[in-house]
Amino acid sequence: MSAPPGASQAPSRNRRRPRRPQQQHPAAPSLAARIAPLSTAATPTSELPTPEPESTDNAKYLSNAKFADFYARGVLTKALFERIPFEYCTEVQEKTFLPIIEGKDVFGQAKTGTGKTIAFLVPAIEQLARRPVPPPEVISILVIAPTRELCLQIEKEAKMLFAGSVYRTQSVIGGVNIKVQRRDLLNERSDVLIATPGRLVDHIENSNLGPRLKTVQTFVMDEADRLLDEGFQKSLIQIANQVTPKDRRQTLLFSATVDNKIRDIARVVLKDKHEFITTISDADEATHQHVHQDYIVTSLAKEDAVMLTLIRRAARTPFPKIIVFYSTARGAAIAYDLFKGIPDFQDLPMFEIHSRLSQGARIKQADAFKTALKGVLFSSDVTARGMDFPNITAVYQVGSPSSPEQYIHRLGRTARAGAEGYGVLILADFEANVLLNKKEMRELPLKPHPEAQHLTDESSDEFKSAKEMVVQTYDAMDSVAKAQAYQAFMGYYNGFQKAFRWSKEDLVRTANHYALDVLRYRSPDGSNNPPPLLPKTVGMMGLKGVVGLNIVRPQPDAQQGYGGGRSSAPPPKKRQRAA
DNA sequence: AAAAAAG
């Protein structure tokens, strides 16, 4: 590895420790870590960042234990040990290895970004390696996680641990061809199966996977707090009914938060005699307590210009890598459309990810952003939890998140494993107080942005130029995405009516303002009407008879964008660039 | 209709 320009000052210890963990402290500014652990892509030398001295902070989640110690004590077999590309264990890993290898049930509390995946995969696989190789139809380890991308991330690590062995891992997620999965399940080993709940149930019902789940020895529920959400419950019950019963399997449950709801579930799925492991001590402040966080309250109409200014400023720093969260998939999509169309950001790659993209596009975007040295990802809450994008310098959030918890999870994409990070929350005036007055929010070190005044000052040149750029770009954009964003906005804020003490008319007025003045939606007929909604949509939102809505009869040749009557199937967006 | 997740 030849030293890039500027690397000569790098402390030599950075390079002398090839086995220092990378994923565990992604922002460790060692060269190797900067190039991203999952990357195989060649990086132009000229783009390599200047390494900074290693911060002691980055070692925060590391323990003094080494994987080599576990190997020396006979805890890890040679083959597995050799496939672990890290030298030091993280704290969670050190604590979970022995109990899991001994076959105990574990309730683990650990934030993501602390090496949690390795903490359960390595010991589970170690157990597997100690037994005779099972017949090919056996699924020894079943992992359930709440998003597709998280499953793929886990699968990647399992593949690494299985490299060159007879064992195989497969993922079973929605959005990809089910027949291919069915065939692979039939023809190839799946010693570790990693699944989202919905698709796993689909396979139970339609691929006769149920009986094979009875061969599961270790059952892992990752991001368990999220898996307990309403929408997952039915699937989880079906899965629990098929998988090996709890007294004859090992269950590992991981959750970032531990509240009564989780404890109740733990009681149901874990054996009475399980081990509780936590790495969150009083001394070790939670990430969200140490990350620098600012908020800006402004009008809806100024949000985009403020965001543009923030990105512009960040673009002048060496390696900006930012995630911008929006509350709706359509909101993230239109923000991506807006900012990718702005000429200032030629050198700053833009990415988008949300449920309205095809799964193929989602995977491409996530992979590209993971390995990117800089860029901005416009995201819905798909990536809010557990996703590991290396070296995120800042997380911006636009609009009230659905809960303080969600705010904290999103923020956790930056400052991973003790690294530096920064958060900005942009709120519209009508939503600010309700969120900021919540107890959980008040307990955060979240402060007014020191430059809030200037950033939102209509008479400043910086604001004026940003606003002008936003207006121009929206004006040039097609109306379909705007109509979709309008509908999503209405649907999202519909849930806040009570909290905001809004009447239905207030909701409609605000949504119309959003479409007409913010997005600059113009009806194809040249009128000043807001985007059309189907009677059915209006009915489902409980807005029948509210003035200001543009209700249209369903048309047989309907342009989609205002209903179309589909439920959850994501109409794949055609536009896609490989970034 | 509103993150996500089955189509």
Characterise the protein shown here.
- This protein is of the alpha/beta class and 579 residues long.
- It folds into 3 domains: 61-278, 3-Layer(aba) Sandwich (Rossmann fold), CATH 3.40.50; 287-475, Rossmann fold (3-Layer(aba) Sandwich), CATH 3.40.50.300; 484-551, no CATH class.
- 40% of the residues lie in helices and 14% in strands.
- It is built from 26 helices and 18 strands.
- The strands form 4 sheets. It has a 7-stranded parallel β-sheet, with helices on both faces.
- Strand 5, helix 8 (178-187) and strand 6 form a beta-alpha-beta unit.
- Helix 15 (303-315) packs across helix 22 (461-475).
- The chain is globular, with a radius of gyration of 25 Å.
- The model is unreliable at 1-59 and 558-579 (pLDDT under 50).
- It binds one DNA strand of 7 nucleotides through helix 9, helix 12, helix 23 and helix 26.
* Poorly predicted runs: 1-59, 558-579
Strand content: 5-15%
Name of the CATH architecture of the largest domain: 3-Layer(aba) Sandwich
The CATH H-level superfamily of the largest domain is P-loop containing nucleotide triphosphate hydrolases
CATH class of the largest domain: Alpha Beta
Largest sheet: 7 strands, parallel
Radius of gyration computed on alpha carbons: 25 Å
* Count of DSSP H/I helices: 26
Estimate the global geometry from the Cα principal axes.
globular
Estimate nothing, just give the exact number of structural domains: 3
As a percent range, the share of helical residues equals 40-55%
Counting DSSP E segments of at least 2 residues, the number of strands comes to 18
Biased composition (Basic residues): 13-22
Function: RNA helicase.
Keywords: ATP-binding, Helicase, Hydrolase, Nucleotide-binding, RNA-binding
Catalytic activity: ATP + H2O = ADP + phosphate + H(+)
